[in-house]
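B., you asked whether I could sanity-check this one before it goes into the benchmark set. Here's the sequence:
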Amino acid sequence: MPSPASSELADALVLLHSPAEARAVLADLCTPVEIRSLAERWHVAKLLDEGALTYREIHEATGVSTTTIVRVARFLRLEENGGYRVLLDRLKEARS
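And here's what the prediction gave me:
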């Protein structure tokens, strides 16, 4: 169960209107290293969703650890949160 503070943050995030606003919020909330880590995970999720590369090939192409790749894959495919799936599907819809 999410904490009240994390629920409030999620409620606030959906009020953003543009990528520029999202970048500004990320810059305020996260350190550059945290942003880089989030971006790496997102990149890995997209590569896994495409299904063309093995975990090892993703590691070689991105430099992301295989541990992180396995974790992203688990959240993408097995966990019930569905956050990666929602964003990946919405991006596909927006590009159609």
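One thing to flag: Residues 50 and 75 are 15 Å apart (CA to CA). Otherwise nothing jumped out at me.
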